[in-house]
Design a protein that fits this description.
This protein has about 160 residues and is an all-alpha fold. Helices cover about 70% and strands about 0% of the residues. It has one domain.
């Protein structure tokens, strides 16, 4: 049976992944970083290139991640990568992680508008900060927007049993 480190479990529970047994969580924990990592690379590219189109496209994808019980990039893992890796499907995203997607969607849209409107410095600051936040969750499982969600809404709304897709 695989073990999940207590700090990793806690960080994932803050994101809303609760009620998942240790073996399952240990197996999928690294893959829960997949979508945030793809987003990080995309938003960094959009920021470096000062590209409103790249940023607005990612904003629309993030909005889907806020509305759906999964992030669209999770489909790449669940429909393909997991079969190659011989791992279980990712659990559904809970309210804290979907809230994070909603925040990212608004932030990406604002960053794109800044670049589109000629406010390049503002665009680089917004894009750089968002990329740093996304890189943090991609590398450490520390999700600042999920912490904000918990501060605003508490544990009760965030805690539910995450079921596999």
């Amino acid at each position: 049976m695989a073990a999940i480190a207590p700090p990793t479990r806690r960080r994932l529970e803050i994101q809303g992944f609760v009620g998942i047994d240790d073996a399952t969580l240990a197996e999928v924990a690294p893959w829960l970083r997949f979508s945030p990592a793809v987003c990080t690379v995309w938003m960094a590219t959009g920021t470096v290139l000062a590209s409103p189109v790249l940023l607005w496209t990612l904003a629309a994808i993030a909005l889907l991640g806020a509305i759906l019980p999964f992030h669209p990039f999770d489909l790449a893992y669940n429909l393909g990568i997991r079969h190659l890796a011989r791992t279980r499907p990712l659990p559904r995203n809970g309210p804290p992680r979907r809230f994070a997607c909603a925040m990212a969607s608004v932030w990406l849209a604002a960053t794109g508008w800044a670049f589109n409107g000629g406010a390049t410095v503002t665009g680089y600051v917004l894009g750089g900060l968002l990329t740093a936040v996304a890189a943090l969750v991609s590398t450490t499982d520390i999700c600042i927007p999920s912490l904000v969600y918990r501060a605003l809404f508490g544990r009760k709304r965030a805690d539910f049993v995450a079921t596999p897709r």
